[in-house]
Amino acid sequence: MTTQTKANYACPNATLILRADAPQDEWLEVRKQGIGGSDVSAIVGLNRWTSAYETWSVKTGQFAGPDYNHAMRMGHLLEPVIRTLFVEDTGIKVRQAGLMRSKENPFMQCTVDGLTEDGGIFEAKSSTGWLREEWEDDQVPDHAELQVMHNLAVTGRSHAWVSGLLDGREVFIRRIERNEDLITDLIEIERRFWEQNVLANVAPDVSNVTLPHLKEVFAQGTDTSSLQPRDLVVELRERLAAAKSTIKEAEKEESQVQAEFRLLFGNHSRLVDEADGLTTLAKLDQNGTFSSSKFKTAEPELWNQLQIMKPTLDMDTLKAEHPETYNKYRARVLRTPAIKEGK
């Protein structure tokens, strides 16, 4: 007679702060009171969508946070689907959990997607097929690994199950064991961020990922000046000029390579290895952007025949009659003209 192991849903290191069915506004408010699992990759600098600066601005109340977009909505809707697939494929039951806070390090808190009956946590990830390489060789994306290590630190549980759904049809299931060395490092990194940046209200360094956030926060300019050290501004000007020069050189090289490729293709659509006459080395498919200007010039009668009327914004009237509104939605463009002393 076999003995069934008792389900383990205990979180010995954590205190439950909010139940899973708590109102959304309560969740949003409490999330500002600590560092969550989804914040960790940004703080460490391994998140391609957000940065430590943006996380700091949310925690300090200077920014409400990103708008609830389509990707977030789909992730929320697909979470129970991914959970169901995981349970069906593994036979491991999953229980919902609320927002928990670390007893030892109260600046750390988490909301796991579920607690598994075998003593682990569950995290559901939905993504696109072009990120498939992040799941190859039994791996998970860096941001997901950092998130689960943070969540394991908060909960005190032994391992994590990460289930990824790509393009709504390809499922990956990965088990990640608790890594005490990584957890120790994360606790110290998060402690420094919380104490030296959030509590001290000192902004962390910006990164290239921070640019979209800063454009949104400082979208509206005023006709005023900001006193800044000359050396700092000159250094930024020189770095910007060097970056633009590098881009131009890269674009020239790209055009050179494209030209050499086009010469090899001629009117053909494939380049095949001459050794076997079968292996395709490169393709030039006719499935790119449609050229309206060339079509109009070459096929004027068909162009006129296929014209349709559709509403469009009267920019001239908007600019003339509502200048303040017009300027409100114009982008701010960075320019670095020659420095003129005293002007």
- The tally of domains stands at 2
Q: Please report the first level of CATH classification, the CATH class of the largest domain.
A: Alpha Beta
Strand numbers in spatial order across the main sheet: 2-5-6-7-8
What name does the CATH topology of the largest domain carry?
A: Lambda Exonuclease, Chain A
CATH architecture of the largest domain: Alpha-Beta Complex
> Which band does the percent of strand residues land in?
5-15%
How many extended strands? 10
Mean model confidence by pLDDT: 88
Q: Briefly note the structural class of the backbone.
A: alpha+beta
Report, as a whole number of angstroms, the end-to-end distance. Answer: 90 Å
Q: How many alpha or pi helices?
A: 12
Shape: globular
Q: Which range best describes the helical content: under 10%, 10-25%, 25-40%, 40-55%, 55-70% or over 70%?
A: 40-55%
Instruction: Provide the low-confidence segments as ranges.
Output: none
Q: What characteristics describe this protein?
A:
single chain, 343 residues, alpha+beta, Lambda Exonuclease, Chain A, 2 domains, 5-stranded mixed beta sheet, 3-stranded antiparallel beta sheet, 12 helices, 10 strands, 42% helix, globular
